[in-house]
Amino acid sequence: MKKLLSILLAGAMVLSLAACGGDTGTSTSEPASASTGTSEPASATGGIPKDEIKVGVIHLSDPAEGSGYTYTHDQGIIGMQQNLGLRDDQIVRKISVDDTAAAAVETAITECVEEGCNIIFATSWGYMDTCEALAEEFPEVIFSHGTGYKSNGTNFNNYFGRIYQARYLSGIIAGLKTETGKIGYVAAMGQENGEVTSGCNAFAMGVASVNPDAEVYVSVTNSWFDPEGEKQAAERLIAEGCDVIGQHCDTPNPQTAAEEHGVWGVGYNSDMTKDAPGATLTSVMWDWSVYYTKAVQNVIDGTWVAGEKVDNYFGDMADGLVTLGEFNSDLVTDEMIAKVEEVKAQIVSGEWDVFDGKTEIMDNEGNAHTLEGADYGSCNWYYENVNVL
């Protein structure tokens, strides 16, 4: 049936798409029929008219949570929609799709295909293998996978960015703020996951740049999304004496735990000052609309056509994908901000970067490494001031 569907959809891509709604629920859309629509081919260059394109997005949790990973990705989708002037019924959302449940992931993505999506953004690491398989099955659809490392060079790519740049800057704030010299870090995955570990190392390097005697302690949840586990991990770190809590996990729970226990924190994904105003110093943030706008515009323009060469995307602070949230003026001093702004200017200008592929970096076992940021997947070691609980 899927093979038949692929054939039918291939014919239908040059026809206008039937109106079908995507909302913030799992989907209430009517599937687009391959037999509907009578418009002329999309464009001479192979693009798709803006009023006919349809965009799918697979979310790990519910954007209605109002903070964290999924919320931030959906804000990026909303920003893209506003930037390009797309209607609500041109966005199909599948929410709370467990990235450890392969069957559920396949169902959600296949439903997006059936509903006529030309490009599908799959936002979590665990969607990667399913995207790879379905890209093979539906070559007329573009599959764009957030994080991870796989792509096929045609209709399946991955997108991420130099988030370590903002993490380094947040480490400066943490290093200047700590009073105990112990700084905690709630990590979704352990040392084997280069995405998480490289970010932790950048944070720890930022700490060391202003406070060489401080230590960073890591507590791992082994889950990308575990609200209760994230809170418990933060509480373990606080019990260890950590008075600043950083994080690479989805929810603001480490920040709210910090506030409950009278310590400070650095949020991730969205601005978590609103979640824990008495604790959050700043937040390491993404503006995913930068990529989503670029990707969908390329599909509209015909400059990114399924079946032709597509590139992976790795944005940075200079292009606005990666940023640092506003500083909490009640907790962060002007001197701290000035130090961050000094280093940020060097990063944005290209004068300096955290991981330049040349400078030797010592790990916590006495070994020297070099790392270029785009190769973060190879980072399976911890910086010299990092300890694992």
Automatic annotation (TrEMBL):
One GO term describing the cellular component: plasma membrane
Disordered, as annotated region: 25-48
CDD domains per record: PBP1_BMP-like
Biased composition (Polar residues): 25-42
Signal peptide location: 1-21
Coiled-coil ranges from the UniProt annotation: none
InterPro entries (UniProt xref): ABC-Purine-Binding (IPR052910), PnrA-like (IPR003760)
Keywords: Signal
The UniProt record lists the keyword Signal: yes
PROSITE patterns the UniProt entry points to: PROKAR_LIPOPROTEIN
Start and end residues of each ABC transporter substrate-binding protein PnrA-like domain: 58-353
Keyword Transferase: no
Protein name: BMP family ABC transporter substrate-binding protein
Originating organism: Candidatus Allofournierella merdipullorum
